[in-house]
Every structure is written in C-alpha cells, then in structure tokens.
Description:
alpha/beta
Amino acid sequence: MSREILALAEALASEKNVEPNVVFEALETALGIAAKKKADREHMDLEVRIHRDTGEYRTVRKWLIVEDLDYTYPELEKTIEQIQEEIPGIDIQVGDYYEEDIPNEAFGRQAAQTAKQIILQKIRDAEREQILNAFLATREDIVVGTVKRVERHGIVVEIAPKLDALIPREQALPRENYRGGDKIRALFWKVEELNGGRKQIMLSRSSGEFLRKLFEQEVPEIADGLLEIREVSRDPGQRAKIAVKSNDQRIDPQGTCIGVRGSRVNAVSNEIGGERIDVVLWSDDAGDFIINALSPANVGRIIIDEEKHACDVIVEEDQLALAIGRGGQNVRLAADLTGWQLNIMTVKEAEERNAAEDAAIREIFMSQMNLSEDIANILVQEGFTSIEEVAYVAIDELQEIEDLSADDVDDIRTKARDAVLKAALEAEEKLNQIDQDLKNLDGMDEDMLRDLAEANITHRDDLAELSLDELIEITGVSKDEAEKVIMAARAHWFADETNA
C-alpha cells in the first residue's frame, strides 16, 4: 500500500496545486479516524504517521502521563507510577506522552470512503487558504466583488474565484437592497477566525474608513499628499461629515473635495446610497474647528471649557434647528468629528443661564463676604466668579475698577481673605470628623476625602451606600476609581455575610 499512498499524494498535490505535505497530513488524519472506528478503539488516542519518502505508515497509540491525583481516563492516561512500573528506567515526565505502536489495520471500502472525504475536505481547506493568502498579499483597501446571496446575518460577496467575503448586517448600509449578481464595493475590514479554524474575510460599508478611502480614490490630490482627511464622522446611510486640510496653500480643500458642481462628493455619495456628506475645513484651533463642524448652521459665539472638554455653542433662534439637526444628527456628528462635548443654546437661553449664574455668584459674595448688593454686582460685572479669585487677585486690578474706592478695595480684600480662611477651617473641621476606616480605604486620597466631607459623607457605610454616579458627581473621579473605592467600602458587608 506504500506505493499507492505515494502515488495518491503526488497526484492530488499536482491536481489541486497544494503542497504534498498537505496531502500527507490529510491522509494521516483520515487513516487515523478510520483506525479509531475499529472495534474498541473509539476512546483511544490514535495517530497514523506516514513516512514521506517510502509511503510506509504506522499506527501509534498515545497515553498522557499524569499525576496520580489527576488520573481520570484509563483509555487516554497513565500515571507516572504506572509507566515507571511497566517500563523501569524510562525517561518521561508528567505532561509527556507515552507512545506504543499497534498493528496497522487493513482498511475496507467504508474506511477508504471516509478517508477520501476527509482528504478532499482537507485539500479544499488548503486550497482556500492558499487563495486567501494570495488575496491578502495583493489586496487593495477597497474590495470590488459580486453579490452571491443575501442572508439573515449579512451579504455574501465573491471577491475572487473560489473566495467569498461577508459584509455583516451591522456593517452594511440600512435600506440597501442587493440581489445575486450585483456589483458591490466595500472596505476590507478584517479576517476573522471561525469555529474549526476556518478564516472569513469581513468587509464593511458603514465604517468611517470606507468613506475616507472612497474620497482618496475620487480625489487625486489626497493620494498625492496635497490634501488630507483629518477626521470622519458618519451616520451610515444618512449623513456624514469629513474634516479636510490642505498641505498646499494654493489648494482649496473644500472645493477640491466637492468638485465642479459637486461632481466628486456626489460620486462618493452615490456609492453609499445617497448619504449626504458635509465637507468642512479642519483647523488646529478648537473654536474654529467646532464652528466649521456645525455647518451649515451659523454660530454666533462659543464658550470653551478646557477642563471639561466641553463647549457651549450659542446661535440665533432661527439657526437652532439647523445646528441641532433632525434628531440631533448635526450636533452629534459635529461632536464626534471634533471630539468635544457640544451644548447648543439660543442667545436668549445663554442670557438666562448667565443671569442665573451671575445671581448665584452675587449671592455668594453677599452672604459669605457680607458685601452690599452694589459692590457684589460690580465684582460680578468685572468677571469674578469665586471668593478665591477676589482674595488673591493682584491689588492693582481691583484698584483699576472705577466704581471702587480705595476703602472699598481694602474692605473687599479683607473680607475675601477672611471668608477663604473661614472656609478652610470649616473644611478642616469636617475632615477631622471623618472616621479613620474611611480614610484608610484603598484608593482614597486627600482631595476625595475633602469632597466627601463637604457632602457630609463621614462614615464608611455612608460611602458604601452611594451609587457609582453619586460618588462621581461628588468627587469628579473616573468611573474606574469610583468603582474601586465603593467596592472597598462595601467589602466588610460581604465579609459579614460569609461569616454568618
């Protein structure tokens, strides 16, 4: 049979254009399965090994060497003590395999048929692997294929002879309808390993990168490096925004990407089901970029909070709907494009909010510094927002305020510093009231303790009863930090339940 095996391996390797070793491995698997189907061998660990030069093969039975305590399956395992008793002086360790040759079986027609099926499947898998590797070695980012069928979980696309890819349902565009034979373009997304080790090429039509690559194909200036797309934000199938930047001052990045009478942007839009695309000018100035990203709305002014990475956008009443967009789409895409949290409001809403904030600050100046309403109003109008600012501002700045006399300046400074000192003493007193077991919790620091003391959280159980959101609101810590501290605070509850 050895000559027949060599001849079969050579013929199949040549016919299927695969390495001979692939055929030998398939034969070994097939013969091993057929050998196990013999009587009383179903639970054995058997291997068939074929000599690549002679075609001779042998059948090997294997046992895993285990510790006595781990000995569970006699058909598959031997303990280290057993093997040392059977073969004194054997050099073998726990975790190794002990092998023993057993007689080869003469395989009948049914076993040969099984072997044939396994061999053909292995060869088909090897062929597909070769086709896949060849595709991956030469692939483009944008893949063009033919729709084979539309299934519940996605669209199956033939992208090369005998090679299919899948556009998962969540990576397809909503409301797109394809039928077998239709041409389709998509972004090469990834190769995913499925059950059994089979690999599947995944494509995407909904990703921002697909939109970027379509523009690169449509706009030669991008490929030449004269323009670049800095950011992309999409609501797939409906609307998208791209932020473009010119690397050549002679080129208008927006006009170049839009094209004559919109030819370029329309070509991309038509490829993705008529998705509306806003081409906006990128800027390294956050304020300018935010204003550009909210187009086509006209922005009146913005107020940026660097610490919170948020921005208040103030627009006229007639621009509010345009700035927000249908279902909040415009502001959502702009926020995603810029990376800033955007709060849209009208001029009237901004004035009302500012008035409320001014009133709150005025009340603090009046109640905690014992200032008159007129003096408090002057400080608010000059832009002071806290007692600390008043206490530590340069004396020259206060003296430059026309409505304040020298006596007023001295009185304000004295009262501000007295209020700051009083607040610090009160905070220290509250801090001293915190239980030691709360102070010693893992993840607790001085700033967090002061915030908790200000909120009258002085006992470990007080902290343990807080929700995650409540602790974040009080202290401003991250979600991970809040989870760590709360779990540490609750640890004694679980210990008490265990002991009970």
